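Why do we care about 3D structure at all? Because function follows from shape, and shape follows, mostly, from sequence. That is the central idea of this module. The next example makes it concrete: a single protein chain, its amino acid sequence, and then its structure expressed as tokens.
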Amino acid sequence: MATSPCSSSGVSSSSSSGLGADAGLEIRTRSVEQTLVPLVSQITTLINHKDKPKRSDKTLQAIQRVGQAVNLAVGRFVTVGEAIANENHELKEEMSVACIEARRAGETIAQLTDVASLDHPESDSHITIFTDKTGVVKAARLLLSSVTKVLVLADRIVIKQIITSRNKVLATMEQLEKVSSFQEFVQIFSQFGNEMVEFAHLTGDRQNDLKDEKKKARMAASRAVLEKCTMMLLTASKTCLRHPDCESARINKDGVFHRMRLALEQVIEIVTDSRPNGENEMAPISIYSGIKEFKNKVEGLRENLYFLSKENLSTMLEVILEHTEDFTDSAYTSHEHREHILELSKQAKMELEQLVSVWMQAQNQKTKDLMEDLEVAILKTCQCMNELKREVHSAATSLAADLLKYHMDHMVLKALKITGVEGNLEAVAEYTCKLSEQKEQLVEMCRLLRHVSGTEPLEITCIHAEDTFQVTGPQIISAAETLALHPSSKIAKENLEVFCEAWESQLSDMSLLLREINDVFEGRRGEKRVYLSLPRPGKHNANLKALKPVKLDTEEQAKIAKLGLELHLLTSDVDSETEKWEDQENEIVQHGQGMSSMAYSMYLFTRGEGLLKTTQDLFHQAEIFATEGTKLASALHAFSDQVHEDDKPLLVLEAEKLISMCKQLQITAKASAQGKSATFTKVDACILKTRNVMTLLCQLLPLCCKLLRKNKAGNGCLKPAPPWKEDRIRTGTNARTPERRVETFGIKSLENHVTNMTFLESK
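And the structure:
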């Protein structure tokens, strides 16, 4: 089994509770992270109980029940951990130590919270949570650390299953390569198919569980290769068996086996977080990521004039401009795009020179005039980089759209199939040259799209597409040559069909990828819902038609930049809060996510980016944002009827406050504004009021989440977890399927036990 990258324990929690993060364990999967959430939450609640001079019997009983609940739940959890240790001897020692630590910490917490029967729980004669807060913190830290270690050790079993499954696939592939008869091939391929299905399930679950979006994209790419290559391997191998002396058939088959081995190796690299020979993974560098980093550094000068050197900034720009040569040197870039990119590159150098000049002066002497000049220089530099980004995006996506449209009829593939069946070697050679040209065009398209993809997962998808065209092109050629040499061979014809279908499928995938890249460019973020409630001609009232759309100039953008940045930070806070909710379909969460998306679009407007192009777009978005806020307030009122009577007034008060703020925003957004100055004042007011609503939303979401958990805990907490032995009997243990037994005691089993740690909230 491969060694897991995790070797020591640690889990972070709220700093206010005193639960620090021990160096070591990195949690890489969502299942482990989410399993720990209830434990961290409830332990933090216990640690942060309010120290009041007088404590009611009800409070003392609640604290004691929490301590007992922790101890009982940990006991059940440890029992499962010990069962895993007994079935996996290589983990036994580490798992046993972690289980002993967890059990000891649970017992300590139970002892320190045993206060309900004491007349004076704060008396020094009996050590309790009230007299030894440090002891509780230490026990809590030990508990979280040891539970995390047990979970991560259990996660190694999942990794071991994937490695074992991969090894079985590789062993069967070696047998398939050596077979010499159809009968033997069919028998072994049947086994291979079952093994690939198992591997697909294991890796699919792992892909969905990964936290790192980049690794997730790499895993998806590898699994897509394996899925397509499985059918290719079947037809290529059958063709080789039918025509054993055919060199092109052998080349075709060898290519499939080689690609599958590479994909299998990459899956193992991802799940074990390792690289062969200790190599470091080189992250693909794109123009988009370079511009984003460059702009962040430039904008950072507003806060700190000394945090980087002018040489660093110049080097960053040089790297970006070097990458633009991929566009200017490309034979497929139009003359117009090439000229614009060169012009903007020259302008970027000039803007940076001006920025550095003002920046150096401001370091020596911080006058108001110099700081204003610096702000203008920052905005001009960033605006130039935005235009450069727009230009390379336009160059890449227009090329992609044209190529995909041109090649969507698959004329070359059709011609290869026809001439192959005719046995016309000369015509096949002619069309293979055309396919090679098409391949070069599509590979170049993928390289340029990677520069403008906007996110790391999309960059990886572009790299995968480039590899697919690079590999599949020659495979189609070898399959076509085989058919031309054996025109009456049904299996050679079927083999060519399979490779052509893979090419067509990749072209179709490129259309989807192009759409996703455009979505990112236009300000739609990842998988979040984006509200594109923009005004359309004839769809809104007459007043809108009379107003001339206005854009902010550089000076106005400078004034509003700080407010926009605050709005951006608030959207991140809201996103972070919504992710903490277990039920992502909750109405409160959905309204919160919608408002965050709209606020983010308004932030992009302050930077001169995104879908909101004019001030009128912004005002309409503000109206929709306010409407969404009013819907959220209605959901809060409905939720207030479900909470405890003591908590209801606060929630109703906050909901009323939200309604009032949304009404004010709607009034501002609908108010008429004539002239440039009045329009800018209205823009400023809309963003300011949106920011205020988002600030309130940042307070509301954690409050509602806490009340929801409290409400659940009060309605029958501590559902007893079934004993692990019963689990084992129910699942069954078949001696012929040891992998299934391991799965029973894997991460899912532990998840169930920790999820049942739904403790009473202390009051």
